[in-house]
Amino acid sequence: MLPDPEERRRPPVHCRLCGRPLRDREARTWGLGPECRAKLELRTAPRPPDGPVEQDPLPGV
User: Fold this and answer.
1) Where is this region: Disordered (predicted)?
2) Which residues contact 10 (CB under 8 A, 6 or more apart)?
3) What is each CA distance from 6 to 11, 14, 22, in whole angstroms?
């Protein structure tokens, strides 16, 4: 006998930023909807330069 469909449902997962229900697997894994992930990508810090950075010598060295 198959369990009732209501019993087989996964618990709802909501976006950690906006609170909307998440439906796809990737969004549920991240805990963020696609729109909120895109917003966070815009807010990430730029990559540091690849070359050496000029800095003052450490005192006592």
Assistant:
1) 41-61
2) none
3) 10, 19, 18
How far is the C-alpha of 42 from the C-alpha of 36, rounded, in Å?
A: 10
Residue type, 48: P
pLDDT digits 0-9 by tens, 1-51:
555 555 567 788 999 999 999 988 999 998 999 999 888 887 777 777 788
Amino acid, single-letter form, for residue 34:
P
The helix/strand/coil state of 39 is helix
For 18-37, the DSSP string reads T-PBP-SHHHHHHTS-HHHH
